[in-house]
Amino acid sequence: MSDRYLAFANSAAGRRLVGALGLPAPLHLERWMAGRTRPLDGALLLGGDGGLASAVLGFANKLSNDLYAPGEGQFDLPRWTAEHGPKLKALVFDASGLSRFEQLGELRAFFQPALKGLANCPRVVVLGRAPESLKDPLAASVQRSLEGFTRSLGKEIRRGGNVQLLYVGKGAEHQLEGALRFFLSPKSAYVSGQVLRLSACAEQVKDWTRPLAGKKALVTGASRGIGAAIAETLARDGAEVLLLDVPQALDALEALAARLGGRGLALDIGAEDAPARLVEALADGVDIVVHNAGITRDKTLAKMSEAFWNSVIEVNLKAPQVLTQALLEAGTLRDHGRVVLIASISGIAGNLGQSNYAVSKAGVIGLAQAWAPILGKRGISINAVAPGFIETQMTAAIPLTIREAGRRMNSMSQGGLPQDVAEAVAWFAQPGSGAVSGQVLRVCGQSLLGA
Ligand SMILES: NC(=O)c1ccc[n+]([C@@H]2O[C@H](COP(=O)([O-])OP(=O)(O)OC[C@H]3O[C@@H](n4cnc5c(N)ncnc54)[C@H](O)[C@@H]3O)[C@@H](O)[C@H]2O)c1
Fold it and tell me: What whole-number distance in Å separates Cα of residue 368 and Cα of residue 386?
């Protein structure tokens, strides 16, 4: 569904009116285009001093060929100043060396001048060490305070920019390249204010142009909306895809499967024979499983029928658990597999009229957290992606006023696109993304709900 306000706010007349009335001024977000190879199209400023910056230096020229540092001679890079430097497309600050409250001023010293020289849709990543990994309580508190900083900067940066915090564990430095290829590129267009923990992972992406080459992927609910975008994106990245949806969606499913060189499977994931039929359809094994199929049956709890309650929990929560279990027991899900569950910010913040849906989506987050240590023994990761307001048929059905509120109540003042969720899933599906497990990544434009 098109966002007419976004188009209006970006017209000449609209820009004037929006500015004069102080209304939200959403910018057209840059998105990844097919054929692009470099993650960053512009200058990258690298600062901070904690040991992780040197890990970034090792591959930074693969991200951008325009690298700068804030200090004279720092990292042997040219010095950037707001007066003489080019507009900055990305900032990476290594805060992992900060261990005393007085050092927190280094954040201000690095970011304040840089904020004066930002290009449109800038990307910011702060690197730190997970507080729970530090013995010194002061250092742990300082590292924890980075969350408040990055989340606030996400709300201030504007221009379609975003800000994330990555806590990098010992040995996880090798997976920084994959993470920064996602977070510094337009692939993370609608992700902001997120905090993720990276841990060591032995697997590496071999070819960044096709990071999923040789992998087999299953996507449920793949005939339209977010699921169709996920299937397209996984196929773009080299995976062979099996697209699953209800029998009523067979035509759309087969058309998309044919276009992507994959297969379609008409199956209701809640049906009793679904686990056996899925195992049979994936007889050669599967590496990537994306539980995307989902439904809403909204009513306030006072008016919620048993059928509404049960159907949402069956499809959104029980089916992903039952199918994952079946794929594991049959030996279908391979070692080093990647499982991604599509949750929702409703499962984090709760939502009026969605107690059944919020139960199911919070439960899905619980599945990722509970399965992670068990599956980790086989090198399998499992994570949840929690979309906010994404422009699909599901959100087009929301009443106008609630829909407008959902669209604007985030740092980007607009809804996301199915592609935004798909890019996050595709990153989680990569071999090196075994560095992240049992976590939730929100793709919500830093929605105010549940923030
Ligand atoms: N659109 C959003 O803003 C938004 C926000 C948060 C979370 N989500 C979640 O993202 C996922 C995709 O949402 P969407 O907006 O693309 O919805 P959609 O309604 O456009 O697509 C959902 C797909 O799942 C399929 N499906 C439903 N029940 C099924 C079943 N029993 N067996 C097999 N397939 C089934 C549908 O046929 C459909 O193709 C869902 O899990 C949804 O809860 C969406």
Answer: 12
